[in-house]
Please model this.
Amino acid sequence: MADNDAPRNDWATKDFYAVLGVAKDASAADIKKAYRKLARENHPDSNPGDDAKHEKFKAVAEAYDVVGDEAKRAKYDEFRSLQARGGFGPGMGGGGFGGAGGFNLDDLLRDRGGSGGLGDMFGDIFGGAQRTRTQQTRPRRGADVESSATIGFTDALEGVTVSLRLTSDTACPTCQGTGGKPGTRPHICPECEGAGFVVSGTGGAFSINETCPACGGRQLVYDEACPTCHGSGRGTSARSIQARIPAGVKDGARIRLKGKGAPGDHGGPPGDLFVTVKVTPHPVFGRKGDNLTIEVPVSFDEAALGAEVKIPTLGGAPVTLKLPPGTPNGRTFRVRGKGATRRDGSRGDLLATVAVQVPATLDQTAREALEAYRAATAGRPLREGLFES
Model:
């Protein structure tokens, strides 16, 4: 038998009935029922990241492809029966079977209606199953896309819709993602034998599955590469979308927009769009969580004697702060409900911090008044506490 039939021998030793959990004499309806149940339980879309279930799904699909087809099942049962009675000896496919008094297996299979002997039997059962699985490429989710948006301070508090220009990876428009020159026929990748991945050892007791370097995971290869993508099957797509930035978003926040990423392959769902928000600073207001902040300049006499100071709010009417006599520099006053919008629709507070201003220059009248104040307060031990320790 040719070397390329070696994988078929390996597949032929599998018990597809055991894989599906049914008896060898199970009815077609029972086999179909078992397959549907196992396919639902192990489908990759329902078990993302679970490699064990992914492999189970492949094994179930392979088993059903054979025993779920009446003609293939008959040939498979015949093959298993022959194997159980004596195995395939050195004369397999050419000389005999089951010892010196055996019979020619190729002749038997040709009598059963095959045209090419044992090779045709394996090709019908296992080669056909592999081709079916390969051609019915599994839908693949599109890639996630990263973008950024710069918005104003007020827009961040109130929410805004922005226009984003996106460039993402997508299937090549010339070959539709196959990687082959249009009009050429594909064949199963010889590197991974149609699996889409190869097993790579790590140097220890473990091995990992890696995307096949020959077919890029597409399971098929072409003799002539696509002239546009040079065989990669990938291209770029540019589009504009409208993205809603929610109210109350903070500088540096990362917003996920589901289904706005790159389109999927073979009918798969699109990926997601992640937008990093940059908020430009405001000349007057700052932000601390859900609260807005403002620094309020006050004069020495306002802080010492007390005063009513009018301050602005963002997007609303001004409010008046009542400073009690002796207000220290750096004291913060809270104005309820004048801050940023929260997710539940409520609003934070406005935190107004007093900043006592010291005049850089004084006219004669102001100087005389301050000198009189100094004389009136002379002898007060403001700094004695610095030396007590």
About this structure: The chain has three domains: 3-135, 145-279, 285-376. Residues 118-135 form the longest helix (18 residues). The CA atoms of residues 88 and 97 lie 6 Å apart. The two ends are 99 Å apart (CA to CA).
